[in-house]
Automatic annotation (TrEMBL), chain A:
Protein's UniProt name: DUF112 domain-containing protein
Phylogenetic placement of the source organism: Bacteria, Pseudomonadati, Pseudomonadota, Alphaproteobacteria, Rhodobacterales
UniProt-listed InterPro entries: DUF112_TM
The keyword Transport is annotated on this UniProt entry: no
Organism (species): Yoonia vestfoldensis SKA53
Coiled coil location: none
Domain spans labelled DUF112: 17-435
Signal sequence residues: none
Pfam family of the protein (one): TctA
Record field: transmembrane: 16-42, 54-72, 115-139, 146-179, 199-217, 320-339, 351-374, 386-404, 410-440, 461-483
Keyword Transmembrane helix part of the UniProt annotation: yes
Automatic annotation (TrEMBL), chain C:
Lineage: Bacteria, Pseudomonadati, Pseudomonadota, Alphaproteobacteria, Rhodobacterales
InterPro entries in alphabetical order: BUG, Bug_dom1
PANTHER family: BLR1237 PROTEIN, TRICARBOXYLATE-BINDING PROTEIN
KW Transit peptide (keyword) present: no
Signal peptide as annotated in the record: 1-21
Protein name: Tricarboxylate transport protein TctC
Family: Belongs to the UPF0065 (bug) family.
Keywords: Signal
Length: 502, 191, 334
């Protein structure tokens, strides 16, 4: 009974309800603008809500978090520029839909599915948090390393053109991620003895450059072409449409919750893994992936919103952040006099249930705001290109600067933007570059931790993998996926089945 | 991925508008040069990665950089060899299809933006950039250009500088004093 | 290039004419936080600064600037004007940048506004570790050389200093140092069993200890700790630790040398008031930090002593890139 009351706290105080609504609304726009991030917004809110009570402060933060994760999909669909890293996969099928005039429909499906994913994440948080956090803790460095390799194999999914060029792009991304002083030994890597390179290259700056600037430069080719008229009927997807994608979205939501709950991995990796999963299990999509497949929208959007609930799992049960945003929220709880840690659930269960309630509310507001503002949003794509291109470029510059207040990041952003423009033209996929950067540290650090733990002994390293059920499962998955992508497998499959299944 | 699809639909979703020209059996102008450039750059990075920690230990800071740059070198070499065997697409030129005047002009504008951002400050640089860019693209009157540029700049500045307190380079404008003036005004009005 | 320089000179001249000390602060102050959002330094700075703003009657805009173990943020403030409008909010790390080869600057280029608080280091162990106290741990290491996995956070981090201290006092311990990028991830790994023992700040580990998910081994202090009174202290375990203790990470607010004296005075007064605020004191207590709230000559003396002790400890352990003597850092006398 107390539990129910704690969940409903949000509804009993109109002020809290309003703050969640406000947060969600603001979050959608913060998420949509590349360069404004939820992390930034929440850390500013710490100072802003300093003198408030803890409930109102948390309400606002939870709203922004939920809205922000969803908001990234808007610009990904409308402009092919992901507003936040977790929306990279959404652009791959969302933008082609917008080009066919189906932006409204794409946003509608995205919104409903984000709601669904968010809901799954919250339900898992409410019912199974202790189990999931125990599972997440059991991940050893070698498991994170295997997970990173599994992620890198997604290169195949993300490069619809030449696979060799895709592999090059992925390796390039890993190299970019290694630039700067190595966080484990402080050795300089690819810095060429330049001070400005010591801090490394901001991943967000590369993303904004490769997607924002190179897309804007690309659009210069068709300045005079009229923008595609967007159909704005059929925004709310029919029940049968939702039902079709229900099995898939359940699977991708589970991926989202688990990846979200692992400390050190978040919505961005979850969304990419879910996209890959969708591509694997969907045998006959109505529209091929990469050209506007619904599955390509459903998978990443359910996963990244489910990852929100997932990220709260280690935070609430162990005081360990699931991602950057929950890390700041832990700080906020400290400042407001709480002690987030394993005892929080026992000492102050109300706080846990209050957050569950606030998340649920934010999720509902996300659905409402998401489905109502679409008509105005789609007008953005219909704006003249002569205005939208300069604005995208300016926003890219401000956004890159805002990441770390560094002018160096602006230079990197512009450099990678121009480089990305050439990559586009010569058929090198950009997705794998970003994938490589995201996974670079995870792969590198955990490989070194794992091999150091085994005293540099490869034999002991493999023994460790084979004797741990979790590591073995991940290892087998890596092998299977790798083999299924090689030409030998394809040849064998063709011989066995007689013909290709396309 | 679905291996069966590769090769038949050879285009990237993000370059869907290039797809009609992006023929897999022919190379685009400049493509071979780009591939050679990538190969040379990869070899250079591989050499650089070797310099980080050499072959001292599996756990060395340079192990993963060496592995990844080796993959880059090999794949770049394969791409170069494959590209070299293809014939040029007839009718495409570097100046027309890859780097038209407008793209070069914008790359130039962006470089100038980067150079001026620190000394001149964000507001002035961005204003100049927006006016030049909108004028170049829309070819409409000055009143139209300047009013659109001004309006969008004000919105962006308020959101980033005031709401999100991103300390954009102030340059030669006394921006912080300006904000403090308004802050005092509001504080004065409230009390 | 020369054009850029010209612009910079012009900008400098203009801003210099505007900034006068009498009406300080006449515009918002930038507070550059050396570490990322959500970390210890971030939490401490964001909870003390609002009180300082109230005392100062101005606005401090705090920005996280991460990278190169905080050197990026430090260099940013060094490059800014010494007008009191750019403050560095940092931790102890810059004091060993020079010997670790991480940069040419440290806090000697700064005037301490306030050294807020100091943390206490301790050893914590995974619950399944086959020992429950410090003596047991040493016995286990002696019996199983090269098996104990000890968490680390890179050369110069707190664990490396504590490890160096242990090696200096107990003789070289044959353990595996597994590097993590911060004590947060390392403590997570400790709970998951990826490492066996972790040298950490008391405040970061205390909640997990209270919940019984990790076990305390030793506190590196000379006095019994009020938060964890039952845990053995280092000088009780081995009197030789007294040479190096008390030692611990600290947090401070700094202004670049050359900032006008009255500006320094105003800032010092504001942060001293802020550090006494009961809310802040309560927060620091709950996280296991020891309040210092010192400035001026007292702070300088603390910094010098800290740097001497730590730099030579790391140097003796063979972890430094350059000898402390090269930077005029004297060997501690006692």
């Amino acid at each position: 009974m107390d539990t129910v009351l704690a969940i409903l706290t949000v509804f009993t105080q109109p002020q809290l309800l309003l703050l969640v609504a406000l947060g969600t609304f603001a979050g959608i726009y913060i998420g949509a603008i590349p360069g404004l991030s939820v992390t930034m917004a929440v850390s500013i809110l710490i100072s802003f809500t300093f003198s408030w009570d803890v409930y109102p402060a948390i309400s606002l933060m939870v709203g922004i978090y939920m809205g922000g994760v969803y908001g990234g999909s808007r610009t990904a669909i409308l402009l092919n520029i992901p507003g936040s890293p977790s929306a990279i996969a959404t652009a791959m099928d969302g933008y082609p839909m917008a080009q066919k005039g189906q932006a409204g429909q794409a946003i509608g499906v995205t919104t409903v599915m984000s709601f669904f994913g968010g809901l799954i994440g919250i339900v898992v948080l409410a019912l199974a948090a202790p189990f999931v956090s125990a599972f997440a803790l059991s991940f050893q460095p070698r498991d994170y390393m295997l997970l990173a390799i599994l992620g890198i194999l997604l290169v195949g999914s993300l490069s619809s053109g030449s696979l060799v060029k895709g592999i090059f792009a992925g390796a390039f991304g890993i190299a970019i991620g290694a630039v700067g002083r190595d966080p484990l030994t402080f050795a300089e890597r690819f810095t060429f003895d330049l001070r400005l390179m010591e801090g490394g290259i901001s991943f967000i700056a590369v993303m904004i450059g490769m997607f924002g600037v190179s897309e804007a430069l690309q659009q210069l080719h068709n300045v005079d072409k009229r923008a595609v008229r967007q159909k704005i009927d059929k925004i709310i997807p029919s029940f049968s449409t939702i039902k079709t994608y229900l099995p898939l979205s359940l699977q991708t939501s589970s991926i989202g919750v688990i990846i979200g709950a692992l400390p050190g991995t978040g919505g961005d990796i979850a969304a990419l893994m879910a996209y890959d999963h969708a591509k694997r299990v969907t045998k006959n999509p109505e529209i091929p992936f990469g050209q506007g497949a619904m599955e390509g929208l459903v998978a990443p959007e359910t996963a990244n919103n489910a990852a929100v609930g997932g990220a709260f799992i280690p935070m609430m049960t162990l005081g360990i952040p699931g991602d950057a945003v929950t890390a700041i929220m832990i700080g906020a709880l400290f400042i407001h006099g709480l002690n987030p840690g394993p005892m929080l659930m026992i000492d102050q269960p109300d706080m846990f249930w209050f957050i569950v309630g606030a998340l649920l509310t934010a999720n509902v507001f996300m659905l409402i705001f998401g489905l109502t503002g679409i008509k105005i949003f789609t007008k953005i794509v219909e704006m003249p290109r002569s205005i939208i291109i300069p604005l995208i470029l300016l926003l890219s510059i401000v956004g890159a600067y805002a990441v770390n207040n560094a002018i160096t990041d602006v230079y990197w952003m512009l450099g990678f933007g121009i480089f990305g423009y050439f990559m586009r033209h010569y058929g090198y996929p950009l997705g794998p570059v970003i994938l490589g950067i995201i996974l670079s540290r995870m792969l590198d650090d955990n490989w070194r931790r794992a091999i150091i733990s085994e005293r540099e002994d490869l034999g002991r390293f493999f023994e460790g993998i084979l004797t741990s059920p979790l590591s073995l499962t991940l290892f087998v998955a890596v092998i299977l996926i790798f083999v299924s992508q090689t030409p030998i497998w394809r040849a064998a499959k063709t011989r066995l089945l007689g013909k290709a299944t396309s | 991925m679905q291996p069966d699809v590769t090769g038949t639909t050879d285009h990237n979703s993000s370059t869907a508008h290039v797809q009609q020209t992006n023929h897999p059996l022919q190379r685009r102008p400049g493509e071979l040069g780009f591939a050679i450039f990538l190969t040379l750059a990869s070899v250079f990075l591989l050499y650089n990665a070797y310099g980080i920690s050499g072959f001292r230990a599996l756990s060395g800071a340079g192990s993963v950089p060496m592995a990844t740059t080796l993959v880059m070198t090999i794949t770049a070499l394969i791409v170069t060899l494959r590209t070299a065997r293809l014939g040029r697409i007839a009718g495409e030129t570097l100046a027309k299809d890859i780097l038209p005047v407008m793209v070069i002009a914008f790359i130039g504008l962006l470089i100038v933006f980067g150079l001026l951002l620190k000394p001149l400050g964000f507001v002035l640089t961005a204003a100049l950039f927006l006016i030049c860019a909108i004028k170049l693209l829309s070819r409409k009157g000055w009143v139209y250009t300047i009013s659109i540029a001004f309006l969008s700049l004000v919105i962006i500045w308020v959101v980033f500088r005031v709401v999100f307190t991103v300390l954009l380079p102030a340059g030669i404008l006394p921006e912080a004093e300006f904000i403090q003036f308004f802050r005092n005004l509001f504080a004065g009005g409230a009390s | 290039m020369s054009f850029k320089l010209m612009g910079a000179v012009m900008a400098l001249g203009l801003s210099a004419t505007i900034a006068t000390a009498q009406d300080y602060p006449s515009k918002e102050i930038q507070g550059i936080i050396q570490w990322g959002a959500g970390g210890s330094t971030d939490t401490v700075m964001r909870s003390v600064t609002p009180h300082a703003e109230a005392a100062l009657g101005g606005t401090v805009v705090m920005q996280n600037m991460t990278g190169a173990v905080g050197a990026i943020a430090l260099n940013y403030v060094v490059d800014a004007d010494a007008d009191g409008y750019t403050l560095l909010m940092g931790a102890e790390n810059p004091m060993i940048y020079k010997v670790m080869g991480l940069g040419e600057e440290d806090y000697s280029a700064f005037t301490p506004i306030n050294l807020l608080a100091r943390g206490t280091a301790m050893l914590v162990a995974n619950n399944d570790a086959p020992f429950d106290d410090y003596a047991g741990m040493l016995a286990y290491i002696a019996a199983n050389p090269g098996e104990l996995k000890l968490g680390a956070t890179g050369p110069g981090g707190l664990p490396s200093v504590i490890t160096a201290m242990m090696n200096a006092v107990e003789g070289d311990l044959d353990v595996i140092a597994v590097p993590y990028d911060g004590d947060g991830p390392a403590l997570t790994a400790l709970q998951g069993g990826a490492i066996d023992v972790m040298p950490a700040v008391l405040g970061a580990a205390v909640e997990a200890i209270r919940a019984g998910s990790i076990k305390p081994i030793l506190i590196f202090d000379t006095q019994t700790n009020a938060t964890l009174p039952d845990v053995q202290i280092a000088t009780d375990a081995n009197a030789a630790y007294a040479t190096y203790l008390p030692w611990g990470p600290f947090f401070g607010v700094f202004a670049k040398n050359g900032t006008p004296d009255d500006v320094i005075a105003k800032l010092t007064a504001a942060y001293a008031t802020a550090a006494e605020h009961p809310d802040f004191v309560a927060l620091m207590d709950s996280r296991g930090f020891t309040m210092m709230n010192i400035s001026g000559a007292e702070a300088d003396a603390f910094l010098t002593k800290w740097q001497q002790g730590t730099a030579w400890l790391l140097d003796d352990a063979g972890l430094t890139q350059a000898s402390p003597t090269a930077f005029g850092i004297a060997r501690p006398s006692n």
